[in-house]
Amino acid sequence: MTVKENLRPGGRSARVQASVHKAVRELMAELSRADVTIPLIAGKAGVTPSTIYRRWGDLQELLADVAVDRLRPDMQPIDAGSGKADLETWAEQYAEEMSSGPGREMIRDVLAAQAGANACKCSEYTRQQIDVIAERAKARGEAFPDVERVMDQVVAPIMYRILFGDVPATARVRDLVARVMSTMD
Amino acid sequence: MTVKENLRPGGRSARVQASVHKAVRELMAELSRADVTIPLIAGKAGVTPSTIYRRWGDLQELLADVAVDRLRPDMQPIDAGSGKADLETWAEQYAEEMSSGPGREMIRDVLAAQAGANACKCSEYTRQQIDVIAERAKARGEAFPDVERVMDQVVAPIMYRILFGDVPATARVRDLVARVMSTMD
DNA sequence: TCGTAAAAGCAAATTCTTTGCATTAATAGG
DNA sequence: CCTATTAATGCAAAGAATTTGCTTTTACGA
């Protein structure tokens, strides 16, 4: 439903999208989720509700669109000296960000949308970050597990626990990393 | 918002809940998600919409409530002879059910709801199933990994991939089980 | 049996969503 | 540079969903 892909940078569509996204971010910051409505967003963004309905379909899709945008990592993983240290540092930060209030909300928004594309993009971002760590380790001449292994044994457990209950503690995250680094067959 | 916990079996509340749940299940089977509305459910269930709004708050919560009900396992894990075989059998079935169309929808409904209690319950069901397998293995005198380890290394990867993109293939599930059974330190 | 409290029904008021049509803005071709 | 074409937005009315105050029903305990 979203048309982001074929937008010229300065066109009208791009401006509308930008102001709607901005309005959503601001409203989400000051109101509770249940109070954020499309007419409200439209008012703040300076567009008509029908524009939003036509472009995004419903609130869920719009929120997912905004959320996936905010979940895009804004920097490379920190270089902590070794592959293991890099992964540990990254995983702890990931767990913390994703289990925070806003983090949880964004994940929920992405998963709640009908279109699966946003969720895919989300795990793709994660995969890319780990890829950077893996490449860096290989450049150093270190052994490093396969990226998919890291997704399965580190990322998935963290995300599962965030979604289905508790917040993963730092110690647990460290354990996951230690395990994947030690069984590198 | 739900009041399921303090319901007498034959009371009016229980009857309303039962007929609403039934109406939801039937409507979900014949219509697409976007076409299922509270007034429609209310009509089919023979109650007024305001009853549903007051008891569940909104459609999302109602759907989550119905979904978690349907996700409750209706039988013990199959006994396949050994802990590893039990786990393999169970995990394959779990992956298949959860990645099916209705399975995905139910998971999404549970996760999309504001109240986290339903999601918790969901992973609790899974944990109990694995517990049964683990106890059975121990009764046979076999070694079996810690239940939390199985959650991290088998359940979480399966669920992560279902939620964030692909369907986990049978071969992959078998790999996950093999790995957790082999590194039982 | 009766009184009480919680839940459900009803209906009006409000708010959100959809839709047809008019208008505006961006793009390609002359 | 101008103009035709197409896509997106604005506007407003119609339709649908949600909220709410009040009344009625139902289950339970005294």
List keywords for this structure.
homodimer, about 180 residues, mainly alpha, 9 helices, disordered N terminus, DNA-binding
Concise synopsis of the structure shown:
The structure is a homodimer of 185-residue chains. With 185 residues, chain A is an all-alpha fold. Chain A has helices at residues 12-30, 38-45, 49-56, 59-71, 83-99, 101-112, 117-139, 147-163, 170-182.
What does this structure look like?
By secondary structure, chain A is mostly helical. The first copy, chain A, is 70% helix and 0% strand. Chain A has nine helices and no strands. The longest helix of chain A is centred in the last third of the chain and has 23 residues. In chain A, 35% of the residues are buried. The N terminus of chain A is likely disordered. Chains A and B meet through helix 6, helix 7 and helix 8 of A and helix 6, helix 7 and helix 8 of B. Chain A binds a DNA duplex (30 and 30 nucleotides) through helix 1 and helix 3.
List the helices and strands and how they pair.
The structure is a homodimer of 185-residue chains.
Chain A: H1 12-30, H2 38-45, H3 49-56, H4 59-71, H5 83-99, H6 101-112, H7 117-139, H8 147-163, H9 170-182
The structure holds a DNA duplex (30 and 30 nucleotides).
Task: Let me know the average pLDDT of chain A.
Answer: 94
Order of helices and strands of chain A: HHHHHHHHH
Classification by helices and strands of chain A: mainly alpha
Largest sheet of chain A: none
Extract low-pLDDT stretches of chain A. Answer: 1-6
Strand percentage of chain A, roughly? Answer: under 5%
Q: Find the biggest chain interface.
A: A-B, 26 and 27 residues
| Cα radius of gyration of chain A in angstroms | 19 Å
Helix amount of chain A, in percent? over 70%
Question: What is the 3D form of chain A?
Answer: elongated
Distance between the termini of chain A: 43 Å
Give the tally of β-strands of chain A. 0
Indicate the multimeric state: homodimer
SS field, number of helical segments of chain A? 9
